[in-house]
């Protein structure tokens, strides 16, 4: 996809890219330079989803047996 840079240095992010990244008016974006010199656009204000292990940290609770804890770590609960 190609877009044109305005005199102010602005570009329009194509709709397909905005939809894919969940970018809406007011969203914050980052431009990251990759090792090969290319630039990658990412959404900066979107929280990264917690991994299933992060969600469980400190929440095992009392009375859970090993099978229940293992089911939780596998995402079965």
UniProtKB/TrEMBL annotation:
Residues 1-46 form the SpoVT-AbrB domain. The lineage of its organism: Bacteria, Pseudomonadati, Pseudomonadota, Alphaproteobacteria, Hyphomicrobiales. Keywords: DNA-binding. Pfam families: MazE_antitoxin. It comes from the Bacteria. SUPFAM superfamilies: AbrB/MazE/MraZ-like. Gene3D superfamilies: 2.10.260.10. The keyword Signal does not apply. GO terms for molecular function: DNA binding. This is AbrB family transcriptional regulator. The keyword Amino-acid biosynthesis does not apply. InterPro entries: SpoVT-AbrB_dom, SpoVT-AbrB_sf.
């Amino acid at each position: 996809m190609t877009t044109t840079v305005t005199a102010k240095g602005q570009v329009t992010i194509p709709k397909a890219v905005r939809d894919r990244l969940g970018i809406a008016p007011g969203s914050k974006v980052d431009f990251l330079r990759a090792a090969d010199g290319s630039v990658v656009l990412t959404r900066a204000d979107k929280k990264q989803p917690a991994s299933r292990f992060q969600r469980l940290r400190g929440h095992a609770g009392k009375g859970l047996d090993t099978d229940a804890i293992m089911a939780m770590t596998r995402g079965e609960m």
